[in-house]
Amino acid sequence: MKKIALITVDSKVMNSFMKQLNEVFKGEVVIDSFKFDLNGENEFNLSAYDLIVCSSKAIFKDVEKLVPPGKKIVVVRRAINLDKLNEVMKIKVGEKVLLVSNHPYTAEETIKLLRELGIDYLEYIPYYPGCKVEDAKIAITPGGSHLVPGGVKKVIDLGVKIIDISSLVEIFFNLGLPLEETNLLTARYAKEILRHNKYISEINSILKTVIDVINEGIVVMDISGNILFFNEGSKRILDIENDFNLKNISELSVERKNAEMFLNMKEYCNEIIKIGSKKVMFNKRLLKSEDNANGIVLSLNDITRIQRLEYEIRKNNRKKGFISKYTFDDLVGVNENLINAINIAKKIAKTDLTVLIQGENGTGKEIFAQAIHNESKRKDGPFVAVNFSSLSETLAQTELFGYEEGSFTGSKKGGKSGLFEYAHNGTLFIDEIGDISPNIQVQLLRVLQEKEIMRLGGNGVIPVDVRIIAATNKNLKKLVEEGKFRKDLYYRIKVLSFRVPPLRERKQDIPYLVKYFFKKDGSKKHLTKEVLDLFNKHSWPGNVRELENMVYYIENIVEHDEVVIGDLSDEFIEEVRNGEEDNSEFIYILDLLKEKEWAEDCKYILEELLKYKSLNKKVGRNRIFKNLKNKGRDITDDKVRIRMKYLENSGLISIGKTKEGSTITEKGKEFLNFIK
């Protein structure tokens, strides 16, 4: 009976190879195993064996010295056990992976085998005992889990590599066994491959079904345009009726420009193209192997269909409540006050507290409210807006709280839900809250306290989960002092608050806003420097809304792209150049200072700066602080800094860089005269 001596370094490898060889030879060959010690002496008596099987090239030269002359040696070529390969194939492209083994040679060998199997898209890092540990979250190992270094989050153990079929055939040949036996061996391996091919075929079938179900069109082709795959969505978008004869993308009846985009070596992202009567969003990615493009994936979305679906979704949302369309991206500008307001609003969005937004009409208070809603945990709920300035008390009550059937003459059959009910699990934006009547104030306060409403004419309460965002262009604190607004309601709605600056305080944002409005309308128009200068001289009492209306005027009246002063209305030019003095800005600033209880402090600061201005001098904040303290003002240095920063943002003073001092502006002088 023939005898084989199997020499290995690792016990796991020895056991695996012994099991495999015994299964192959079924007792017709005697197989003995020897463990090779890399660091010690090895004295094996191998004279009685017909064939020496060495487990690795790494120990071949050392083993060769132990083999008697004339004895044949087979160095095993190894193969990866395919059973665990599916886990490896789930790793994302480009991921760093440690390939862990007990020897540099076997680590590199495993990497080579994985690449030959087509898994060449990972960044393999060989690791073995004694080498430097590199940062990687995943490790792959052929049976060496115990060697994996700490810090690795996922380990894929492929199991010990098996003897490759080519090495088994070589063993048969060197033992002089009948080659017919190798046919059985080949059949066994073929059966194993067929089992894995069947699995891959089933996966491909499932994947094709999934890709066919999605509405997006997917086309996969080689760089010559030969089609490898396309799904049902692409057939619909590209109007492919008979797909049996379609072999190359160039055979499609599309515009020449589109055909070139399909086949060139450029990648595209969200390009809008036309295919027949359809507007299509087109994306293209190149499939690469080792930085060389070897395939193309086209993605096609029928925009017309998407718009139709969006319309249906919006219609359904409107049946339930309302939707918000603005986000923080729609708040355009670089002004420090605006950026500060946006930053505060973003922080507020993370809470679920009641909010008060203060600012003049047209500054964008509702845009802020919608942006807060869209960045809050309620973003998937309704956004309901109501403006009290246009509602009578009775109408305001029925709109907010709803009514039961028969509660008044002309009431709707079945009754009507109120806005609080529509806004359940969402946000209710109450604009111009300073205009609500005392009776509605009481009812609103109750809802904020109890989180429940009662319909007009009803006798039962309805629980509601609603976040309130209120807005006003009035000085609510002043209204409280005058007895026109409830003090308890004021503090209920002003849990969190911020101010939206008027356009006259952020004129550097005008070019950005104009560009935004033109872009929103798909316009190529632009303003000359002279027009922008004129815009900067205007006080914009209607704020951003007035500027937007001006852009609409230009868009619809002016026929050429470059907008000059002559294109503007005579009324607007006259208003800017010859308009009467308007104190509305000073009134607003003074009201705000009184609300903050800063008025007296700011008046002293302006007077101090005016005194030094008359001496043609600038003065530092520390000097102002000391002078105010000497005059008996109860104030701190930090309070002086905050008040001076506000005066600067309002254009009333100019603060220099470190040690340059501050001075009052001409606008500041006018404001000082106004408040005196």
TrEMBL record:
SMART domains in the cross-refs: AAA (SM00382)
GO biological process: regulation of DNA-templated transcription
Pfam families associated with the record: AAA_lid_14, Sigma54_activat, WHD_RNase_R
Superkingdom of origin organism: Bacteria
GO molecular function, one term: ATP binding
InterPro entries reported for this sequence: AAA+_ATPase, AAA_lid_NorR, P-loop_NTPase, PAS-like_dom_sf, RNase_R_HTH_12, Sigma_54_int, Sigma_54_int_dom_ATP-bd_2, Sigma_54_int_dom_CS
Keywords of the record: ATP-binding, DNA-binding, Nucleotide-binding, Transcription, Transcription regulation
Ranges where the Sigma-54 factor interaction domain occurs: 331-551
Protein name: AAA family ATPase
Native source organism of the sequence: Acidilutibacter cellobiosedens
